[in-house]
C-alpha cells in the first residue's frame, strides 16, 4: 500500500493510493472518516461485476486511506473500534484489571458463553436463532485517558519496546505487559456496555442487536466473540487480552498491511476478519489456531 494526501479544504481531505495490486484509487473523506468519493478505473463500478478479490482490494484501500489520514494529519478518521491504537490501549487496560474488577465488567459475558455448554437454557434475543449456530457476542469498552492523545501514538510506543515477535505468554497472562517501560501507557476502563449480538443463520440472513451506550461517545474497542466454552481456557481474562491482540492483527490485514511482528499470532480476532479470511483468497485462516500459515502478507 502506498498513499499520498493530495489536498484538504474545509470539508474534506483527499488521498491517492496504490493498492497491493498496483491499482490506483482516488478517495475523498470527511474529517470523521466518512468516504464521500472513491474512484478506481481498473475495477468495475458495479459490485456485481467485480470479483471477490477486486472488492476486497477496494475495501483495503478505503480502510488504509482512513488510517493514513489519521496518522498523517491526526483526524479521527478510523472507525473507533477498528483503530489499532485504541485496541492496544484496551488490551493494556485489561491486563491491569483485578480479578474482582474483571468479574464485574465481564462476568455476564462469561456466564452467557458458558450457558452454551453447561446445560443451561441459552437466552438469545432472536426468536428463531439456533444456539448452536453462529452467535457473536459483543461488548464495548470505553477507556481513559483518550488513546488518541498520545504522541508518539500508543502502538508506536509499544513497538519501541517490543519490536520483534512476542512470546505468546505476554498475551495470555494478565499483568505481563505492565513493566516499567510501559508506565506511560496506563489505561483504565471507564465503562463497559451490556451485551450486543450478531446472529448469522448460514443461509445469507444476518441479524444484529447493538450494545447499549453507557457514555455519550463512541467506544474505544469492542469484544467480539463466537460462542465457546470458557472451561477450555485457563483464564477468561487472559483469553480476552489475546483476543484484542488478534484484533490488532486483523485490522492491519484488512488495511492490506502486514501486521507488526508482535501481533503475528493465530486466534479469533474480529468477525470482519473471520469473514474475509474465510471467503477471500488474499488471506489465510489467521483466525484458526490449527491453520498452517505460510505468509503474513495480505496480498
How does this structure look, described?
- The protein is an alpha+beta fold and 299 residues long.
- It has 2 domains: 72 residues, no CATH class; 200 residues, no CATH class.
- It has 6 helices and 9 strands, in the order E-E-E-E-H-H-H-E-H-E-E-E-E-H-H.
- The longest helix is centred in the first third of the chain and has 22 residues.
Secondary structure topology:
Elements: E1 2-8, E2 12-18, E3 24-30, E4 35-39, H1 52-73, H2 84-95, H3 99-115, E5 134-144, H4 154-161, E6 188-192, E7 196-200, E8 206-209, E9 221-226, H5 236-254, H6 271-279
Helix pairs in contact: 2-5
Average pLDDT, all residues: 91
Low-confidence segments = 168-175
Number of helices: 6
The beta-strand count equals 9
Structural class: alpha+beta
Gross geometry: globular
Short description:
The chain is built from six helices and nine strands, in the order E-E-E-E-H-H-H-E-H-E-E-E-E-H-H. The chain is of the alpha+beta class and 299 residues long. It folds into two domains: 2-73, no CATH class; 80-279, no CATH class.
Which descriptors apply to this entry?
alpha+beta, 29% helix
Amino acid at each position: 500500500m502506498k498513499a499520498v494526501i493530495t489536498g484538504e479544504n474545509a470539508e474534506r481531505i483527499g488521498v491517492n493510493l496504490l493498492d497491493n495490486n498496483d491499482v490506483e484509487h482516488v478517495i475523498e473523506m470527511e474529517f470523521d472518516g466518512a468516504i464521500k468519493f472513491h474512484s478506481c478505473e481498473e475495477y468495475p463500478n458495479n459490485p456485481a461485476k467485480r470479483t471477490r478479490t477486486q472488492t476486497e482490494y477496494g475495501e483495503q484501500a478505503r480502510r488504509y486511506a482512513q488510517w493514513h489520514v489519521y496518522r498523517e494529519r491526526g483526524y479521527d478518521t478510523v472507525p473507533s473500534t477498528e483503530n489499532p491504537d485504541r485496541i492496544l490501549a484496551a488490551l493494556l487496560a485489561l491486563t491491569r484489571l483485578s480479578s474482582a474488577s474483571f468479574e464485574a465488567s465481564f462476568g455476564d459475558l462469561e456466564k452467557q458463553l458458558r450457558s452454551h455448554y453447561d446445560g443451561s437454557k441459552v437466552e438469545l434475543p432472536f426468536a428463531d436463532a439456533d444456539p448452536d449456530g453462529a452467535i457473536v457476542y459483543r461488548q464495548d469498552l470505553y477507556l481513559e485517558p483518550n488513546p488518541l492523545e498520545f504522541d508518539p501514538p500508543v502502538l508506536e510506543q509499544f513497538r519501541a519496546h517490543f519490536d520483534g515477535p512476542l512470546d505468546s505468554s505476554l498475551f495470555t497472562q494478565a499483568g505481563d505487559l505492565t513493566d516499567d517501560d510501559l508506565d506511560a501507557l496506563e489505561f483504565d476502563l471507564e465503562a463497559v456496555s451490556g451485551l450486543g449480538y450478531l446472529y448469522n443463520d448460514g443461509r445469507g440472513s444476518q441479524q444484529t442487536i447493538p450494545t447499549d451506550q453507557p457514555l455519550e461517545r463512541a467506544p474505544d474497542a469492542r469484544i467480539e466473540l463466537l460462542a465457546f466454552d470458557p472451561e477450555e481456557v485457563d483464564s477468561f481474562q487472559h483469553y480476552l487480552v489475546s483476543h484484542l491482540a488478534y484484533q490488532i492483527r486483523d485490522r492491519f490485514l484488512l488495511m492490506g498491511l502486514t501486521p507488526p511482528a508482535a501481533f503475528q499470532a493465530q486466534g479469533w480476532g474480529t468477525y470482519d476478519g473471520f469473514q474475509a479470511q474465510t471467503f477471500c483468497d488474499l488471506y489465510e485462516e489467521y483466525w484458526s489456531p490449527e491453520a498452517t500459515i505460510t505468509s503474513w502478507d495480505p496480498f
